Amino acid sequence: MDDLLRELHRRRQKVHAGGGEERAAKQHARGKYTARERLDLLLDEGSFSEIGEFITHRSGDFGMREREVPADGVVTGHGKVCGRPVYLYSQDFTSMGGSLGEMHAQKICRVMDLALQNGCPMIGINDSGGARIQEGVDALNGYGEIFRRNTLASGIIPQISVIAGPCAGGATYSPALTDMVLMVRDSAQMFITGPAVIQSVTGEQVDSEELGGAEAHARKSGVAHVTYPDEDQLFADLRWMLGLLPLNSEEEAPRIDGIPPAIGPEDLRNIVPESPYKGYNVQQVIDGILDEGTFFQIHSEFATNAVVGLGRIEGRVVGIIANQPRFLAGCLDVDSSDKIARHVRFCDTFNIPLVTLVDTPGYLPGVSQEHGGIIRHGAKVLYAYSEATVPKISVVLRKAYGGAYLAMCSRSLGADAAVAWPSAEIAVMGPEGACNIVFRREIEEAEDSETMRQRMIEEYRQKFANPYVAASNGYIDSVIDPAETRQELQLRLQALQGKRARHSSGRRPHGNIPL
Fold first, then answer.
1. Rounded alpha-carbon distances, angstroms, from residue 47 to 38, 81, 88
2. Could you give the residue numbers annotated as active site?
3. 0.70 cut: is pTM over it?
4. 289 and 204, same structural domain?
5. Is residue 88 in a domain?
6. Which single residue of 18, 43, 56, 256 could bond 94 by disulfide (Cβ 3.0 to 4.6 Å)?
7. Residues 423, 402 share a domain
8. pLDDT tens digit sequence for 51-65
9. How many domains does the chain have?
């Protein structure tokens, strides 16, 4: 037995060494951790159990028969984060560049199957040179097997992708199929075709960072949900974020003891400016209704005219969707529509109630928006809210005009509760536009057309651009003091916690109590 144990120890040491000390040192020099070091950062100490530790490739072509690839370039298994189970894989760039071959993919598929069968989150840590060319079509088939499992697990278990190094070609589609993509700035890149291919085909010159770095995907493409300056902060945030999610779609996110918000209730009264033309930071409103320090913002650099994320109200996890008047006046456009719709469906899938803060003058006008498909993309928001069966509460802070008012979780789209601040303006369109249409003749024929126009605008605002017409028709449940917002949300969430609903499509309901 002693001899057998010594052999086991020798083999285990060899596998755990990956590509060796020299390659590990190169990783560290780039500001990157090794595959196993990343698992140590993420998981509770002593909780990791490895699966497929001694698996290696079985390819014999192009010199592979004589080449050893410890663990076949990927570490797979399960562990715990804050005492809750997760399944995960971590690609090892020190071991043949973390390239994906047949057995590498088989290991990943194995833990994905186990995660789905056991109803646990699946985390993929990507740091790979791409498909292992020496294994040809077997490597390509491996990607296809992973993509299929991503799709089958979608909406059932949370899937989170960490991009900690290169992720190119077909490998990018697996993260794109997951719920959340987290990237490390400066060391992570994602692209379908690299700079060299682009230059040879189109003549464009671009480097890897500009083409597919974290900043490009956070601000322009919207592929990256959150970016980080280093891996330490990323994995610390990932541990925190997992605490805001349920293990699977049949459960609720864990609740904790609530704490007061960062902004006092009375301070909410002073956030919205008196002038309807002035912007403000809706983040202040969010800070005034959520437990302090619990807001996890998603896509903070993409489509900044909308804010989405997760947080807690008295310890209960809620999804936040808000228009951001600081940018584009809070208008809905192509990108913000995609951002909102995706977040609504994500929260609906994982039984997270939705709180929508409304302040939008409408859809962003312009040829580029129309040709970019604002009709198609805007429809996604309508569909997502209409389909969602979790508790839905909307709060109209100020402007809520026309189709954008309907899109932002109005009662007609199925909001379970809709309240408004006294500053709310709920109307078909803004007073200026409405008066230019309704009173066009009176304004043109007036002796002082501008004075007449301003008088008509003020009359329209007094009569229609307020929350009371909508409230009198039952479209708004109540007009509330802004200082009461957090308490109002808390009470309505309590009343809705037993909500039962079934999707019209016949799919499994995403409410708190599955039927």
1. 14, 9, 12
2. 169-170, 403-404
3. yes
4. no
5. yes
6. 18
7. yes
8. 999 888 777 676 676
9. 3
